[in-house]
From TrEMBL:
Record organism: Prunus persica
Stretches the record annotates as Disordered: 55-77, 403-445
Organism placement in taxonomy: Eukaryota, Viridiplantae, Streptophyta, Embryophyta, Tracheophyta
Protein known as: Pseudouridine synthase I TruA alpha/beta domain-containing protein
GO biological process terms held by the UniProt record: mRNA pseudouridine synthesis; tRNA pseudouridine synthesis
NCBIfam families assigned: hisT_truA
InterPro entries linked to this entry: PsdUridine_synth_cat_dom_sf, PsdUridine_synth_TruA, PsdUridine_synth_TruA_a/b_dom, PsdUridine_synth_TruA_C, Pus3-like, TruA/RsuA/RluB/E/F_N
Length: 445
């Protein structure tokens, strides 16, 4: 009897609990319907990212789609995306925007060149666009942004003065209303209220890429074709090199010449191999290692061919080592005499640096806070690399000294140095005319 009473009480309690839960579900459904109605009538989707004070508006078709789905459980943003393909792009395109140039530095060791068109990742360009998308500074896609770059540096090459140009979001409404050169307007406003492009981007970029400054540019500006000149540095250790002979030979590059014997020829796309070198110099750097001085070759010109600087430096090293005479430069620049480039290896890519790109009227700037943060970051990176160098130097000091008798012997045999083959005696590559003839034959086939 007692057991039956207990079961009855348990069933009653459970029934009461079920009734209570059912009632609570009904209350929640009522609240959900109320909030859904409020959300459907909300116009907050017409504003995007209040942090940058950029207002946008949706057109009447989006408003109609929103109201017709007020009873749906889907969010307004999801409804709009379904009804209007490309909604996000349209919202972004309504933002105020400005055409600007950015000055960029990067340490190229881990990258497969600058251009994102390369088949390998990462590239500097791909990292920059990731940061632009992450910070929501990009207006539209890459093509719509009217993007251009000054130099397309190769794998491993670094830069401290690369320049790119593109449309970025802006806080100044005048840039939307006036489709013209925005430099005067920004000068009048003294950059007040504008997005701090340097700060925003540097927070999103990897440690080995940094934006140094920005500058508004006219709509006809192109980072590649508006550039007046480019300067490259090539760093090297001067031990056992005849620097006077190298500098004497290097001055022969100054002027306008046909540099087809000092580049990697692209006969499909490049038909003019004449370029103008405006200055050449070799100067010491403020760095030494075990009494070995670091030097820099400085080459400035209006434009350069593919691998031109590395090919020029490679021949200069042969001259500095005493393998070639400085007169070999004259011979290689005479393409009537030497129409086919002798086969030789380029200088390594890591020591090459795009130092600066020259433009008329561009003055790159950044806020004082951004400049201070940039200097602190670069100083920290320098300290880290010095620490790494100290570790390798300590390991070097810990190595067992090599006995004199073992320096030239290996398992009882004497190592022979490879003999130098003069450039003029080496096999040659096809000439430009031969390459073009081969391309034309392929097209006919």
């Amino acid at each position: 009897m007692s057991m039956e009473v207990t079961n009855t009480n348990l069933i009653t309690d459970l029934q009461s609990l079920v009734d209570s839960l059912r009632h609570r579900v009904q209350e929640l459904e009522a609240e959900n319907a109320k909030f859904s109605s409020q959300l459907a009538n909300c116009r907050c989707h017409e504003k995007e990212d209040k942090r940058d004070s950029s207002a946008v508006s949706c057109d009447s078709s989006l408003e109609t789609s929103r109201k017709s789905n007020s009873g749906s459980k889907k969010t307004t943003k999801e409804i709009v995306k379904e009804k209007v393909p490309g909604y996000d792009t349209r919202i972004m395109n309504h933002h105020c925007k400005r055409y600007v140039a950015l000055k960029v530095m990067y340490f190229g060791r881990r990258f497969y060149g600058f251009a994102a068109e390369a088949q390998m990742d990462p590239t500097i360009e791909s990292e920059i666009f990731k940061a632009l998308e992450k910070t929501r500074l990009l207006v539209g896609d890459k093509k719509e942004s009217h993007y251009s770059r000054c130099g397309r540096t190769d794998k491993g090459v670094s830069a401290v003065g690369q320049v790119i140009a593109l449309y970025l979001r802006s806080n100044l409404k005048e840039t939307c209303e006036k489709n013209e050169d925005s430099r005067k307007m920004v000068f009048k406003e003294q950059y007040e209220g504008e997005i701090d492009y340097v700060r925003v981007l540097n927070r999103a970029l990897p440690d080995d890429i940094r934006v140094f400054g920005w500058c508004p540019v006219p709509l006809g500006f192109n980072a590649r074709f508006s550039c007046l000149g480019r300067e490259y540095y090539y760093l090297f250790w001067g031990e056992n090199l005849n620097l006077l002979a190298m500098e004497s030979a290097g001055r022969k590059f100054v002027g306008e010449h046909d540099f087809r014997n000092f580049c990697k020829m692209d006969a499909l796309n490049v038909h003019n191999y004449r370029r103008k070198v405006t200055s050449f110099a070799i100067s010491p750097c403020d760095v030494r290692f075990d009494e070995n001085q670091l030097w820099a070759i400085k080459i400035k010109g209006s434009a350069f061919l593919w691998h031109q600087v590395r090919c020029m430096v490679a021949v200069l090293f042969l001259i500095g080592q005493g393998h070639e005479s400085p007169d070999v430069i004259d011979a290689l620049l005479d393409t009537d005499r030497i129409p086919r480039k002798p086969q030789y290896s380029m200088a390594p890519e890591i020591p090459l640096v795009l130092q600066s790109c020259e433009f008329e009227g561009l003055n790159f700037t950044c806020s004082s806070d951004s400049g201070q943060a940039l200097r602190m970051h670069l100083a920290n990176e320098c300290q880290n690399y010095h620490l790494e160098a100290a570790i390798f130097h300590e390991a070097l000091q810990s190595c067992s000294p090599i006995e004199k008798d073992q320096r030239s012997l290996d398992n009882g045999t004497v190592k022979k140095k490879s003999s130098h083959v003069p450039l003029m005696s080496r096999p040659t590559e096809p000439s430009y005319e031969e390459r073009r003839a081969k391309l034309n034959t392929r097209r006919k086939d």
